[in-house]
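Morning!

This is the sequence you dropped in the shared folder:
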Amino acid sequence: MKIGLIGRKRGMTRVFTEQGNSVPVTVVEVDPNRVTQVKDVETDGYRSIQVTIGKRRASRVNKPVAGHYSKAGVEAGEGLWELRLPEGEDVETGSELKVDMFEAGELVDVTGTSKGKGFAGTVKRHNFSMQDATHGNSLSHRAPGSIGQCQTPGRVVKGKKMSGHMGDERVTTQNLEVVRVDADRNLLLIKGAVPGAPGGAVMVRPSVKAFS
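The structure's back. Tokens below.
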């Protein structure tokens, strides 16, 4: 069973099928994932691997993290991510996971940090309807309206949909199709809504539902 990979969203393009159809795809650059640590049930209570990608100057790495990389025998990277290790899979510290792990036509789940939208109102954030544009409405066109009840319960219930910070949160989009794998340039071309802004880190894992 495949484990997963960490890559960076680079933007969008399109590819053409043999029938001449245009398919919009998101380009994910997946540099070789270097394994910095392997966790097991005996010492950590669960099985997983810790990986890093890219390169970072030695002057930008503090001593504890530098020691962690040195112990694993790998070059310092841009960050550390953790991937669950399926039963029956064994990976050694210092090894590399590459983009050829996946193949065209496979379904994957992609996790990333969504674009931050700042402070947003209820119409934009929760798809609320607007109030009347005319008929005596003044300055309340996009107002949320009433948010509470009367004396009972006499408070605003927790979880009420209101204005607030929108986006910039962990999002997973399931069942996206891998259209093409470019092992020479370490690229994955994925059809579907890959979360996050260009340049953001994304986690690509085999689909847990795996239906088309």
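Headline: The mean pLDDT is 93.

More detail when I'm at my desk.
O.
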